[in-house]
């Protein structure tokens, strides 16, 4: 499968170009950037044959089978719609769009065109999260009562651009990190958070956008979820805990892009360290996408998954701004 990159981004540079090429038979053949100079330099650095400033150059190239969109968030909708109209399969970064309504437009367009639209939620591709989900679905924890998520990090300096000062590009910790936590919870439980209370902070790093948020969600089956996302915490470390009637999972350093972290299972029998696969998260995302394009299965995270994680993030934002308990609006999905 030949891929075109829409966006000369850090995530493509650090993770996705390598992940695509690590999948046998896959290559990155072109990149689109709004800047001709940056595009050329990016292509040269990564051994990509062609660079262009024109989306149609990428989409009309007969050698491109699929595109990976990793531009700033406000561009995902128009670029995905153009790619879908050109008949290209789309792996799009999170958040899928700026609003649930926009995400629904993308999902519908892909369905109507018979195109695979996937969301690059990497965490559900991690061996650690697959192992935790397996503990839940095989009943090792009994009935799940609550989940606690620790995802307060220090935003690396090289990412302190649009994320901390540009709400129009989708900046802020809620669109950036809450979507990942929402996707992980949905992946674990197989149900969608229903309502939310939240408080946010800004000013320590974020200008005009929130840089920290805490929220509590409830699910239809009665699970409570407590989450903390931040750009400003240098030493907190990440983690997730799932507490059930028969056992608790305490996982540390697993809300990350790397296949790392420790998982402890605590039950009446004592404590047990859980082993898991150490495969590359992004390589698995690409592999699942390719299987979906081949017609066999769904990608790891579908367009609807991206829409739903965004719906939770939207509700967290609304709850934080209004101070009101907020029902998540999945736009009919
Ligand atoms: P970047 O800021 O690196 O890239 C976004 C855009 O900024 C690029 O498309 C590029 O525009 C422009 N840009 C890049 N470098 C420069 C520069 N030096 N000077 C000026 N402009 C520049 O963003 P990220 O890679 O961090 O994020 C991109 C997307 O990926 C977002 O939607 C984000 O939410 C998502 N993401 C997902 C992750 C995951 O694990 N799933 C992790 C990180 C990000 P152009 O293309 O026009 O050249």
TrEMBL record:
Keyword set, alphabetical order: Oxidoreductase
Residue span, Gfo/Idh/MocA-like oxidoreductase N-terminal domain: 1-121
Keyword Oxidoreductase among UniProt keywords: yes
InterPro entries: Gfo/Idh/MocA-like_OxRdtase_N (IPR000683), Gfo/Idh/MocA_oxidrdct_glycsds (IPR050463), GFO_IDH_MocA-like_dom (IPR055170), NAD(P)-bd_dom_sf (IPR036291)
Alphabetical list of Pfam families matching this protein: GFO_IDH_MocA, GFO_IDH_MocA_C3
Residue ranges annotated for the GFO/IDH/MocA-like oxidoreductase domain, each copy included: 130-249
PANTHER family, sorted: BCDNA.GH03377
Name this protein carries in UniProt: Gfo/Idh/MocA family oxidoreductase
């Amino acid at each position: 499968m030949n891929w075109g990159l829409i966006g000369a981004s850090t995530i493509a540079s650090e993770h996705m170009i390598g992940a695509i090429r690590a999948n046998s038979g896959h290559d990155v053949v072109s990149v689109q950037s709004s800047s001709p100079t940056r595009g050329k330099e990016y292509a040269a650095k990564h051994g990509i044959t062609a660079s262009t400033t024109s989306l149609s150059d990428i989409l009309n190239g007969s050698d491109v089978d699929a595109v990976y969109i990793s531009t700033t968030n406000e561009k995902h909708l128009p670029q995905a719609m153009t790619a879908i109209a050109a008949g290209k399969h789309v792996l799009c970064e999170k958040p899928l769009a700026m609003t649930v309504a926009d995400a629904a437009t993308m999902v519908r367009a892909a369905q109507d065109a018979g195109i695979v639209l996937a969301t690059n939620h990497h965490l559900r591709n991690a061996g650690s999260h697959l192992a935790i989900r397996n503990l839940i679905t095989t009943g090792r924890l009994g009935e799940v009562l609550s989940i606690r998520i620790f995802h307060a990090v220090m935003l690396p300096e090289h990412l302190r651009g649009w994320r901390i000062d540009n709400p129009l590009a989708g900046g802020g910790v809620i669109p950036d990190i809450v979507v990942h936590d929402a996707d992980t919870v949905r992946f674990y439980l197989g149900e969608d958070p229903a309502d939310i209370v939240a408080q946010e902070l800004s000013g320590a790093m974020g200008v005009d956008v929130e840089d920290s948020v805490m929220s509590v969600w409830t699910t239809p089956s009665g699970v409570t979820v407590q989450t903390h996302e931040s750009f400003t915490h240098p030493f907190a470390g990440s983690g997730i805990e799932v507490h059930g009637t028969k056992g608790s999972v305490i996982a540390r350093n697993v809300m990350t892009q790397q296949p790392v972290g420790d998982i402890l299972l605590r039950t009446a029998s004592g404590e047990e360290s859980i082993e898991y696969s150490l495969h590359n998260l992004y390589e698995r995302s690409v592999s699942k996408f390719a299987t979906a394009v081949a017609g066999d299965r769904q990608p790891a995270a579908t367009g609807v998954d991206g829409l739903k994680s965004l719906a939770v993030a939207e509700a967290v934002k609304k709850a934080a701004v209004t101070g009101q308990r907020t029902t998540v609006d999945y736009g009919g999905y």
